[in-house]
Design brief:
Rna Polymerase Sigma Factor, Chain: A, about 70% helix, Arc Repressor Mutant, subunit A, about 190 residues, globular, 2 domains, mainly alpha
Amino acid sequence: MVQSDKELVNQILEGDIQSFETLVNEFKERVMNICYSYTNDLSDAEDISQEVFVEIFKSLRKFKGESSLSTWVFRIASNKSLDHIRKQKRTKRGAGLTSYINDFKNNDWSVDHMNHPDEEMMQNQRKELLYKGLSKLSGRQKEAFVLTQIEGMNQQMVSKMMNTSVKSVESLVMRARKKLKAILEKQIKEYL
C-alpha cells in the first residue's frame, strides 16, 4: 500500500469514498481467496466477501491500529466465513468445510498458465483431490494452514488472528501437513 494504514483509515472516516475503493481494491482478491478457502463455493465466497467489506466499512472506527490493517481485514474475512459455515451447519446437518489451496507455493493452477488441455484437466483433478483432503482437516488446522501456506502470512500474525500462541500455530500447521499428506496419498491410490 502506498499510503499508511492510518492515513487510509482516516481518509475513509472523513468520507473519502475513493479511499474506501482503494482499500477494497487492495484486499478484494485475498479476501475472496480466504472466503473461498472456507466454502469452496464461488457464489458463497462472493457473498461473504461483500459482507466482509460492508463490515469493514461499518466497523472502521473500531480499528485501533494495534495490528496491521491487513491482519484486521483478514480476521474479519475469516470470522465472516466461519459464521457462514456455522449457519450452514445449523441448516444442513453434515455440511463440511472445504478449502481451495495451492499445494505448492510456486505451482500456479490458474487456467491462464495452462498450455495444453490435458494439463488443465490434470490440474483440475489435482485440485479436486486436494479439496477432498482439505475438507477432512479440523477447522483450526485448516485455518492455520490456509493463512500461513496459502496467504503467506507469518505465524506471528496468524497467531494474533487465531488468538493463540505461535507454537500452537506451528503445531496446527505441522499436523495439518501430516494429515493432508496421508489423506492425499490414500485418495491418490483410490483414484488410480
